[in-house]
């Protein structure tokens, strides 16, 4: 993104000079503006996206721009799609899905939710916006959780959980409640692409929206780094008293096989202005005291009182992360005050554990619930998603959220992907359950219902489905102990069945400034213990 921004800035300044040379009355107007140009980001988790979908500038194929002499002309919108210049690259390959084919080797432009035809003419923006609008509330809750990491966590483990879906340091028995930035990033690729370019890692960057999406990922990363400057990958992590290095499989451009990954390791093929490879450590850019500091001069508007390029103390950082969490919808104290997510039977620790400051108090009768998801990355040889819905006894349904797997097909030239496919790599994610939904579920049972009864009601109302990038159902499951067992002849194969989908909860302690600690994190077991029903042949093939 940094390289793209620099190239665009260089070209913009050259064009600005040409405009000023042809329009004497507009000298000293265009060049200063070009020098201030930065690549834009699109906050896909803003509240208005749930109402309005894509901004007009990201979906209309034509737009009007001002030229020199204040002339207005209509041009093809470079943010709506990319038309290939010259021949389509010869190594492009078509990708088959349940509902047809993505004709990457024949489409002469980028698409979002295209018709399955080599002669497709336009993107189906209506289909895209239906999926996007439905998922914005879930994405907001996920982002909010990313800013609830407490102080004093193990630096490497906190970074591992925040940064990626593999979560190498968590091992098998983790009770993670916060998810990862990569997980939210994967969701957006799924929602925007359909059977088009954004849903396929090999072709996603040909859609111009890719860059506005990643600019927002960079923005969220910069906000997180500002809030948590002490959390970083380090040289490895510790598990049960034993130190382990980070490892990485063989890559296409930088050959590494089960080799230790260090903060000072090379990030090939990207090079600095000195011709040296960038390192992971140099991607940290907010604090000159950080070893390897390499300023990149990123610029973002102030957000919730945060200006990431200005120094801050711990109190400012704590206040900032609390404001961000609230902005995106995580406010336990307010929820408890309104009776959302509360019940007298909820187990709450009597005492604040050692290590948490004395000024923290438990929120009474309140617990925060999430669904933890572990999926096989290469189950369907392409991108797919797990969707979660709650169905009431009356039959009404409330969509909760999803976890997306952003995966390549087996014919992809990605060498590391082939290694991960062979090792049955796992994608982890979380889906926060809204406090308003917990409140509805509690209202369905007697006020004196036990905690176990509430857990049972949450589970038995949940339904899951696996869907491909076009939304086609591949498998379904019913939650709870009372669900019927899926007949063996109709169940999903081991190749695609989710590894675990569990219900987790935690109590919350807050201080006067609304800083939160998640306590008593508990795993309440598998939700879909009666099996998965294959609804498509791709889910049955071994």
TrEMBL record:
A GO molecular-function annotation: tyrosinase activity
EC code(s) of this entry: 1.14.18.1
Domain of life: Eukaryota
Keywords in alphabetical order: Copper, Melanin biosynthesis, Metal-binding
PROSITE patterns: TYROSINASE_2 (PS00498)
InterPro entries: Di-copper_centre_dom_sf, Tyrosinase/Hemocyanin, Tyrosinase_Cu-bd
Reaction equations catalysed: 2 L-dopa + O2 = 2 L-dopaquinone + 2 H2O; L-tyrosine + O2 = L-dopaquinone + H2O
Domain (Tyrosinase copper-binding) ranges: 207-218
Residue numbers spanned by region Disordered: 327-348
GO biological process, one term: melanin biosynthetic process
UniProt similarity note: Belongs to the tyrosinase family.
PANTHER family, per database record: SHKT DOMAIN-CONTAINING PROTEIN, TYROSINASE FAMILY MEMBER
Name of the protein this chain belongs to: tyrosinase
